[in-house]
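Hey all, sorry for the wall of text incoming. These are the three entities for the joint prediction.
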Amino acid sequence: MSNNSNYKDSSKASPSGGGLEGASSYLKDIFNGLKSLVIGLRRTFYYFTHHKEIITQQYPDNRETMNLPERFKGEVVMLHDENNEHACTGCTACELACPNATIKIITKFDITPEGKKKKAIDKFVYHLELCTMCNLCIVACPTDAIKMAQTFEHSVFNRADLTKVLNKPGSKIREGVE
Amino acid sequence: MLSFSTISKSIDSWLRATFSDTWTMVIEMLIAGICVISLFAILGLILVLMERKVSAWMQIRLGPNRVGPKGMFQSLADTIKLLVKEGLTPDGADKFLFNLAPILAIIVAMLLMAPIAFAKDFQLWNMNIGVLYVSAVSSMMVISILMAGWASNNKYSLMGAMRSGAQIVSYELSAGLSILVVVVLSGSLNLNEIIQSQADGWWIFKGHIPVIIAFIIFIIAVTAETNRAPFDLAEAESELTAGFHTEYSGMKFALFFLAEYVNVFIVCAIGATLFFGGWMPFHIGNWQGFNHVMDFIPSSIWFFGKTFFLIFLIMWFRWTFPRLRIDQLLNLEWKYLLPISMFNLLLVTAIAILGWYF
Amino acid sequence: MVEEIGTTTDGDIIINVGPQHPATHGVLHLVITINGETIKKVEPHLGFIHRSIEKMCESLSYRQFIYVTSRMDYLSSHINNHACALCVEKGLQIEVPSRAQVIRVLMDELTRIASHELWWGAMAMDLGAFTPFFHAFRERESINDIMEETCGARLTMNYMVPGGVMQDIHPNFQTRVKNFITLYKSKVGEYNELVTGNIIFQNRMKGIGYLSSEDAISFGCTGPTARGSGVSCDTRKLYPYEIYNQLQFDEILETGCDSFARYMVRVREMNQSIRIIEQLIDNIPEGDFQAKTKAVLKLPKGEFYQRVETARGEFGVYIVSEGGTTPYRIKFRSPGFSNLSALDHIARGSKLGDLVAMMGTLDLVIPDIDR
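and here's what came out:
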């Protein structure tokens, strides 16, 4: 189409040429401009007709088939095994590693069968609203008690719902984890 | 065969038999008005959806596909949204002009519908100066844009309006000159006669290279006249946020939006009429057999097919090219398009006098 | 001087572009004095996204403060993190394993390509062409997928830690990077077809936004902005860090000094990044991905500075340590701030439409400017 979108180049070229030479450079500019535009049009027409190139992911529809990589940092979760036991000793390494005070560990003292007092976690409080998913707590944890989950749909209606207690009710520390 | 012309003729004869001449006239006008308004609504819906789909496929996206089957009702949903939105009038605006501008835009678009032949013998007003009427009325579009830009009391709007004024006034010239090429060849300003003159082949094929050049210039000029990219300086999104309709919202914005699309349709319809023979089927000289086969396709399909092809062309430009700068835009018109189209007109006049066209 | 209705005494109009404007890519506020379409003055107003990151860093430990820098220039977050990690390593004199160094450089260059891809799309969008934006995102998304797989995030990865990288690369990393290189090479020709060769684009870019070499130096411009004016300033070449001095790549210099030169520098730089990645991707040495470091890092008393080359220019980290676990003072030298300062100079006398194009060629990232 627009055979004529060169403005500056021709005005630069014409004083040197003039006459026939100027006219030929004028026409050459028009031709080259036209060519560059047709090249662009050809490219968009290619995509217009080749629908298999479409890369759109239809997100809410593809929830089942969508696979997030296992390292994706969605939220911090605490791992529990089938006996409802976790590996958190309550050492507060993650709490110290966190830059945003996202984690708050409340400890209690359990009485072991031998009658000794033992430190254990009462509540592992996790503020999702403060978390920046920097992964520092996971790296800091000496017992691999926490990890990043692949969930990412965190919207809730109430801000307080984002404050989570990660250890399940009634859970206790796994035997042998120190 | 059922066609638009037989329907309109039977309605006309029934009305004439039932009512007096005056009442027939009034009722026919009403019917025409309703037809135009509903055509407006349908065109708006179709063109918006078409633009979104065309842009999406060019941008390796899917485009609207949620509302209705394949997203067909997306623009309907958008319309409902725009209807229920509050039509805000800014405090510092000139309220009368501000509210008048979108209405004027739509009135101009409506007026332009009058001389267009949608199918064989299906035309609202077969006037003898149809081409002149179209170029005269379409230049009124700039008034509504200037009005909107000035009345908004917004600097972005004002700049958009100023740009639009300079742009439309300039590009009118080359659009008019390239229309004249066809007028010279066909020897008539009447759109119907221009169509009839293409019964043995469309002007784009009959008229050699000069008509092709005229067509290229025409399509560039009307793209600029309707403020479409790459000439969308009046609303240049990345520069002026939304240009002259920055302050408009709700239905008032929708009217501008609609007017833009209807204008695109109208200029493409004019382009199809002048260069591609309007509703005239594809005929080659005196190949009677071939021409008869082509006549079986209804004339309205020919007309809308050609028009939508040109609309696609304009959309294609929009989604491929970057925008021009204002001085480049005017340079393009005054240094390139206008001299070329003037020279082209001379050439065509010579061809017409010597009878070198087919 | 400024009257109530926003005109100067000379009758020029004052227009506020931003903080909410489609052209500013963020919350940059430009106060523009224009006469008709011609720009007379551009005054950038900053501070809309100031988060006092430097002050925040003073209360964070040397491991913790790195994640904040991802939020500055979010398009080259890896490189920002890299600079911080390097600076801390310099203070502690940690020897980074060669595997970690190679991974870091690979990530840096992938980030650079991703950043330039986004810039390229946004640049075309500033000029009114919307389609290239989506085409650029196709390639950028595949980089993001690689990042997601290895680092666990798409934009703010926090992958570089003092002493190496946080996790080893994902087993798929090398294949996916190679696939990306194939994809990129098959698609890069389209960039020229759609934008670079386009006559409208060339006329919009050539000869506008003239920034001479002297001005580029005196405004403190770095990165592609200065290299477009022929100023050699690639930190990777001049002050090599990591393994950059062992790699084969060219510093891209253009002498056009205009918007088109700056554009071409970035487009050609992407090819150089691909070249670096091709050299490294098959030669990742075995070994540790992280050096052994103490649990609590304490920088010795003193001042430490490290500069790296981000996608936008020279990024510097300056740490003043009093010997404690947190820095006494941190200063970031962000490339966007200096590049923005040249905007007024290059925009004066040009048209309003070109201001947007010039802003595009400076490749501004607003959180990087404000911090």
